[in-house]
Structures are given as structure tokens and as C-alpha cells.
Write a structure and sequence with these properties.
Blueprint (H helix, E strand, L loop, with lengths): L1 H21 L4 H9 L3 H23 L10 H15 L7 H14 L1 H29 L12 H19 L3 H12 L3 H27 L6 H16 L9 H14 L1 H35 L4
Length: 298
Amino acid sequence: MKKIGKLILRLLVTISLLIYLATKIDLLKLATIISETNFLLFLFASFLYILSSYMSTLRWKLFIPSPSGLKIKNLFSLYMIGCFFNMFLPGIMGGDVIKIVLMRKSTGLKEAIASVVIERYIGFFALLLLGNIFFIAFLENIPKNEKIYLIPLCFGIFILVSILLLFLGNFPFLRDIRDYLIKLDKKFFLQAFVYSLLIQLIVMISVYLVSLSLGIYLPFYEIVIYLPLIIILATLPISLSGIGVREWSFIFFFGNTVGNEKAMAISFLWFLSVLIASLYGGIEYLRFKDFFNVHYKK
């Protein structure tokens, strides 16, 4: 009953945000912008999401115990299943819970949780690092306002919280993560970091392609600087799949550059490109849910 209450609350938040955004834009203009989409560029952006998901699978594999027997093709299916459920669960990380549940019999519950958390953590670190690198490199080009300092602020908070959790946190969950980290081969972290940089760049390029598919020029450096903040905000479990939060964030960060309607159109089409790519995960779930949930057979 409590879970249903939370779901209803998030649904109400999502609807409220969309209604609020509808009052801030010209819906007819938005529809006109979307109707002029270049579908080849749009589909290529969707393909890039699948590519980034495959590379994320390779990164994730580095942190999964070898005896698990899970091969890359199985992990890719699990990853895409997680992406599919992200489309319908709170925030954009609900699918991680699904991945953990489905793989726990193959790896063990603690190992499944640790592998997913570490893979996500390195991804967020690379995302924020790229944003800060571009922030420093293109500081002179960015319109001067208070929001531009949010990316270094978030990066600083991320590092501070990481230090506190890893070295000062004494919760059993954190101890399990630390113990798991200690046992891992340290060369995997460098490989995972390189993967993460490439993955985040691919995601940012996909957003850039979505903007071009709409005939909108949004400077790539602005995407790299602000997209980390948009992703973090959409990750918060306050709406379904980050809907409403993501659209508001696009308008907040890019509205002054391209206009509210165009910023909203980019957000909507990017979400749609991810949704289309994630449908593969829905198919995989129907095919393999019993296979993963019971045990893995070679």
C-alpha cells in the first residue's frame, strides 16, 4: 500500500510538472518543431544509445565475478532490460534494481549490488569530470550567469560525499562495497574510466544529433557542460522516468540559448530516442526473465 502511495505521488508530480511546462511554452510551436524532425539523424541518435549501452555492459563486466558464468551477451540483455524498466520506474535508475534482482542468483546478492553501484559511480564521475573539463575550456564562451557554476559545485559535492562515504561511512552496505572494491584488480578501474569517458561522449553526441535532427544548433560544449546536471536531476526519484524534471531542466539550462520550445523539443525527442532503443530490453525481458531469475545455464 505504501509503494502504491509513492507511485501515485510520483505520478502526480510528473503530471503537475508537465502541466506547469505546458503553461510556459507554445504547444503549437513545439508540435511544429517536432514535425520537422530529420528521422535519419533521430534514428542514428537512438542507435548511439544502444552503442553506449553495449559499452556500458563491457564496463559492467569488469566488476562482475568471473565464476558467475554470465557472458557479455547475457549481461547486455540484462543491461537493456534495466534500460527498459528505467522508462517506467521512478528517476532513471529504477532499472538497476531490476538488474540486481535478475542477476542475483548468478553472482550473489552482495556482488550484484556492488557491481551495479560501482559501475554507476564511475559513470557519474566521468560525466561530471567531462562537464568540468569543458566548463574550464569554454568558460569564455558560456553566457555568464549563476547556473554555469553549478557543474563545478556538483563535482565538488560529489567528491566530498564520495570521500565521506568511502572512508567515514560505517554502514554494512558501505563496508560491503569497500570490501568488494579491495578485492578487484586495480587495472579494471582504469579500463572502466576510459569506457566511461567514451560512453558519456557518445551520449552527449546523441543529444547533439537530436538537436540537429530538429534543425536546431545547440553548441556541443553547452551540452557537455549542462547535460551532467540534467541527468543528475532526472535521476532523482521524484517523477516517473524523470519525465517533467528532464524537460524542465532542458528549458532551464538551454532555454536562453535556443528558446523554451526548442529546448523542450530536444528533451522530448532525446527521451523518445532512448525509449525506442530500450524497447529491445522489453523484448529481452519477455524472452529471458525466467532464465535469469532462476539460474544461469551455460
